[in-house]
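One-letter codes give the sequence; the fold follows as tokens. An example follows:
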Amino acid sequence: MITPDDFVALALAEPIESESGQAKYGYAMRVASDNPNPPGVIALTWIAGKDAEERQRIRDHARQNVQDFLEEPGFLSIVTGFIGLRGFTVTAWEDEDSMKRALSKHHAVAMRELFGESFVASVWTSVWKPGRLNRIWVRCLSCSSLEDVTDNHRNCSQCDEELPERPAFW
């Protein structure tokens, strides 16, 4: 039987592909702060290592980056992972200034290595601002009403029972 740890090890060694070859599987994780605010910017990144050693070097940098992100009050969360040699991140921030402050720490060290050495095969980064933030909905556990809890109200509009905690925006 394959355990979650085995799956990660397999995904790192060789991505699992679908029968058509279009879909590849790897691993991902989410690290969230306690910040419940909506995102003002989302940063998307992918980065490809040349080999398994370089992938590990990228992962080592990423661990420190995430620690720095968690210290920034405007950080919301990160979803990150790898499929083969290609890593990806989606980070959510209250605003671009929060993101810039966090990126000025260990991330700046990694960027110096990226531009000063033969480190990584390819990389792409971007920052996105929302065009529209939709509502957050939760289902009432008592009457099954689907409730808009974007404003974080605590009681169901149909039966007045307490609602489950509002999930974070990202």
Observations:
- Strands lie at 16-17, 24-25, 27-32, 41-48, 75-83, 86-93, 122-128, 137-139, 146-148.
- The chain has four helices and nine strands.
